[in-house]
Amino acid sequence: MSEFFRQYLRALPDFPADLPDFDAAAAPADPAELFRRWLGEALAAGEPQPHACSLATVGAGAQPSSRMLILKDIDDVGWHIATSRTSRKGRELAANPKAALNFYWPLQGRQVRVAGLVVELSAEASAADWDARPAADGSRNPDWQLYAIQPVEIEFWQARHDRRHVRHRYGPGREHGLR
Q1: How far apart are CA 146 and CA 148, in angstroms?
Q2: What is the Cα 31 distance to its own chain's centre?
Q3: Which of 79, 5, 82, 12 is nearest to 39 (CA)?
Q4: Structural domains of the chain, with CATH
Q5: Average pLDDT over the chain, rounded to an integer
């Protein structure tokens, strides 16, 4: 049964026939600018929830954990996400304030990976984020926390059918550093 399943997986399509080009040499110096461009292109291509990403944290015993959530904003402080402080991810971020985000847009054959330190944003910003949620009913949630991931590394990845995928990395020791 294992060989059948392996063959089944290998036969599944990987990328769509038409993939966008990406010239890493022409990428802007600001990774947020490139991300916003790619997010817009993902939305225009019909990607569902292009602002959804996987958040990876590390728990007790260095056990990694990941789950999907929604990007809230990008500004000079970092890439914003939110969760309850008492959730598993909230507890893991309190114990080890490092995380990684991964955005995947299969129709575009693209991924963006963001890794860095995590800081808690203000109680006022967290309350405003809670109030802006679609199901907001005016009640308060003191456990709701808005966080910012301050990237030390961002990688843009563009698939190619010849398997010579294009990777463009921002971070220490690279052509494009991070602020």
Answers
A1: 7
A2: 13
A3: 79
A4: 30-170 (2.30.110.10)
A5: 94
Give residue 134's pLDDT: 86
- What distance in Å separates the CA atoms of residue 106 and residue 16, rounded to the nearest whole number? 8
Q: Which residue has the tokens 């728990």?
A: 59
Q: Alpha-carbon distance 30 to 176, whole Å? A: 8
pTM: 0.91
What's the farthest any 2 CA atoms get from each other in the chain?
55
Look up residue 80 and give its two tokens. 């914003």
pLDDT digits (tens, 9 = 90+) for 2-26: 899 999 999 998 888 899 999 999 9
Euclidean distance between CA atoms 78 and 152, whole angstroms: 10
Which residue type does 133 have?
R
How many other β-carbons are positioned within 10 Å of the β-carbon of residue 23?
Answer: 9
User: First CA to last CA across the chain, in angstroms?
Assistant: 51
Confirm if 95 and 143 have CB atoms less than 8 A apart. no
Beta bridge partners of 111: 104, 157
